[in-house]
């Protein structure tokens, strides 16, 4: 990675030589705010677990489609990695479908991320209803549609009026999204993404076969263990218009089970974060970067539409695989570590190259998934955030980042935001000055009376 080879000067991405006391305070304060509230976690998990258990029971007994009777949960996503931002409000549940032996073929123009998934031989099993005309290729759209239909039926039959609603289908999303609105607390919204998933046990595809670059960080043995695990595919098509038929029915490779493990066992030494004296700040740094991404997306929803937390997570893994020593991530190094991570992310945006952590030939910052215009906007926004010492992280309360910032939408410019904060500080100072003058005058008056 470049951060160690390139010398940095003041005011460049990744420069950690001039972290001001204010910035240091902000980073530490925000990272403390981002701790999850235990109560929220437990109540949210309870509600989601109840929903998923009931859904599995419903699918197991459903008369409509025996293919969906044999599903199991492969849970992933940020809640279970314990890097949720602000509130435990989003859950990803991957539902593993049982399939016969599969054959993968990579869709060339997508550099190892999207695949056509076929049965090795024709079958009479229930999956036959979800195949294309060749009677071998598994149709991503058919599986998604049926999942949607079954979940809708399940909610209508078992959870009607209990706060859960199903969101409208999105063509680029692999998930059926359910939303929960707490009647007692109106701003308490939670969402669950249910993603049908295919398991391919026979080894990683060519594009990912070398495995992630973790030899110096987690070790060679760990890499070998990862590569020996199954890979998963979710029904997701590439972004862009005029897709070919193959691309419309394509599946995207998913490593979320491995990512979850890397988050959990993230230390160079096995003892990292085992006891309070071995704590590190890696997860906090990722939380903070995700918070920044979330904040930027709220300010510029249109301009930064292609940006998502996965970009932050990918940058995070790259930095971890390069900056391996646990001591570099001690809690005392929080500000330096965050600035290193942010600097790497900013430089990747500037170079227009953020490689997928597992599929190295795929650049997540390349068009059409990340158009040039959006990348230029992101580069400027990141530079501005760094130069102004991260106004987007200066939100007044831990939950504020979840609420759309209406001011920022009307005046989508971080500078305006900072100006208005400074302006209100000035007006407070004036009021205080006048109060002091009045009190002194009254005091003098009292002495003379
Ligand atoms: Zn640790």
TrEMBL record:
Organism of provenance: Culter alburnus
Record flagged with keyword Repeat: no
Designated name of the protein: Cyclic GMP-AMP synthase
Superkingdom, taxonomy of origin: Eukaryota
InterPro entries: Mab-21-like_nuc_Trfase (IPR046903), Mab-21_HhH/H2TH-like (IPR046906), MAB21L/cGLR (IPR024810)
Family of this protein: Belongs to the mab-21 family.
Gene Ontology CC, one term: nucleus
Coiled coil: none
Transmembrane segment boundaries: 431-448
Gene Ontology BP terms: activation of innate immune response; cellular response to exogenous dsRNA; DNA damage response; negative regulation of double-strand break repair via homologous recombination; paracrine signaling; positive regulation of defense response to virus by host; positive regulation of type I interferon production
Keyword Transcription regulation among UniProt keywords: no
Domain (Mab-21-like nucleotidyltransferase) ranges: 79-264
Residues in Mab-21-like HhH/H2TH-like domain copies: 281-381
